[in-house]
Amino acid sequence: MSSVMSDTQTRNVRVDAVFALAPVIPVLTIINLDDALPLARALASNGLPVLEITLRTSCALEAIALITRELPGACVGAGTVLSGKDLDAVAAAGARFAISPGATDTLYREAAANPVPLIPGIATASELMRGLEHGWQRFKFFPAESSGGIAALRGLGSPFANVRFCPTGGIDVAKAPAYLALSNVACVGGSWMVPAAALAARDWTRIGDLAREASALTR
Fold first, then answer.
1. Residue 5 neighbours by CB distance under 10 Å
2. Is residue 159 exposed (0-12), middle (13-18) or buried (19+ Cβ within 10 Å)?
3. What are the residues facing 151 on neighbouring strands?
4. Catalytic (active-site) positions
5. What's the Rg (C-alpha) of the chain?
6. How far apart are CA 63 and CA 31, in angstroms?
7. How far apart, in whole angstroms, are the C-alpha atoms of residue 192 and residue 189?
8. 2-211 belongs to which CATH class?
9. Taking a C-beta distance cutoff of 8 angstroms, is the pair 60, 30 a contact?
10. 3-state secondary structure (DSSP) of residue 193
11. What is the pairing mode between strands 24-28 and 188-190?
């Protein structure tokens, strides 16, 4: 039991260090590798240094490696991590954290042996309890809005007092403050600061302005 507690505490410290860097984690799907660095600069230089790059495109791992190498002030992680193979790949690319939309017993076991801290996704109390059994106390609440949103997180607060969340899914700049006001919410994830039109136009000024607005949200 003491070993499990030690592992849990160490994991909490590492994830909390990521959560503490900014109130919002941009969730990024990078299609064009040439966009990776200027996009990361626009976000990080305007108060959002924690970047979740989803493994949904062929250049995602290259983007993680590129930003990690060229922008050391950014804290780059990987999203849409589904397996131990994904964890190994993002660790090799230099990711500082990994986020999954859900979690299985197999993924928990493989994550326990991986150097990159995993932030597993949960949507129900039962999924949360499975994570606790494996020694996790920091989770992504996903998809936040369609899984009960603020009311659901408030309801989970009392029976799971040691758990903290990064809710993601359907959250925008108008909804984020109410999430951040919850005592069990450390930060939120979202992509509203990278509108598709602005990214297509490579309008880094517009993205930077939206990032600055998001970074000013309080928690």
1. 10
2. exposed
3. none
4. 52, 140
5. 16
6. 9
7. 9
8. alpha beta
9. yes
10. coil
11. parallel
CA distances (Å), origin 211, targets 50, 112, 200: 11, 33, 17
Amino acid making up residue 181: A
Closest CA to 139 of 150, 149, 148, 129: 129
Length in residues, the chain = 219
Instruction: Summarize pLDDT for 25-74 with one digit per residue, the tens.
Output: 999 999 999 999 999 999 999 999 999 999 999 999 999 999 999 999 99
3-state DSSP call for residue 125?
Answer: helix
Contact between 87 and 118 under an 8 Å Cβ cutoff? The reply is yes
d(CA 169, CA 189): 7
Give strand ranges (E) for 14-61. Answer: 24-28, 50-54
pLDDT tens per residue, range 182-217: 999 999 999 999 999 999 999 999 999 999 999 999
Strand order of the β-sheet with 188-190 is 118-119, 98-99, 75-79, 50-54, 24-28, 188-190
Cβ burial, residue 205 (10 Å; 0-12/13-18/19+): exposed
